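Technical note accompanying the year-one report. For the benefit of new consortium partners, we illustrate the data format agreed upon in the data management plan: each record pairs a sequence with a structure-token string. No post-processing was applied to the example shown here.
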Amino acid sequence: MDPTMLLQVAGLVSGIHVVTLVLHLIIPVRPTPGYACDNTTGEVLQYRNNGTLVLLATSLLWAVAGPSHFLYQNYAAAALCSCVFGMIFSIWMMLRPCRVDKKSRCLTTDGAADRRKWNATAEEAKAWDDKWMAEVFWEGREWNPRAGGVDLKMWLYLCGAIMLQINVMSALFEHARGRTGSCTDVGIGIPVCWGYVSNAAITTAGCLLWFVAEYLHFERVHTFTYDMFRERTGFKLGWGCLCFYPFFYALPLWPLVSEPASGDISAGVALGCGAFFFLGWT
């Protein structure tokens, strides 16, 4: 693997995460309360649920100014860089100073009024102290860590969704480019070639893009789920969101990118697959 190319890919991947963070911070949104509370103060955690707007902004930026099919052509390098970034984040979460809460779940709004629930019981403390270091690294030490006003858990979810979206867009552009030889530019950098995208590719991509859009549209709902009060922030979440989530979920689209037109499915089969997907979704 060419070191120069690897550095370019690392710069692109890290740049996407930085842009995601900047947009998350600057796009105005009214903070909304969640279910989890701060374990030291008992205050209800507030969230900036602007994921849908960040998704729209990053998608538009990628379509207009992004290197189109570059991520697809350097998929292995991008996955490797993301793996390293996930490891770095996980190690940082292990080393950064914090108050380790030994409770079996995060303090939540239904228990914040009872100060006896703020601290771990003797059984919970012993269970935590008996954990192996590898187990702590996998799970993490903090429930809902924050840095510079950013909720790191929600940022990880956002980064994973945005990177998955861009991976799908990159694969679609490469698919269309390969089937047409070239695409028509409408004047602002957006290629018009969707009429040449196969039924199989557009169905697969559509399901993935729906998953991302629906997830971020209901971002506030997730602040009341198991993830917030029973999952700590460690390797499982850090590496999972930065590497596994965006690069493994996109794999079903990859065999279809270079699929010849003769191997495409019919429109009826495509509609049936889409209907089956949404039937299971509801």
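Partners are asked to follow this layout when depositing records. The two ends are 43 Å apart (CA to CA).
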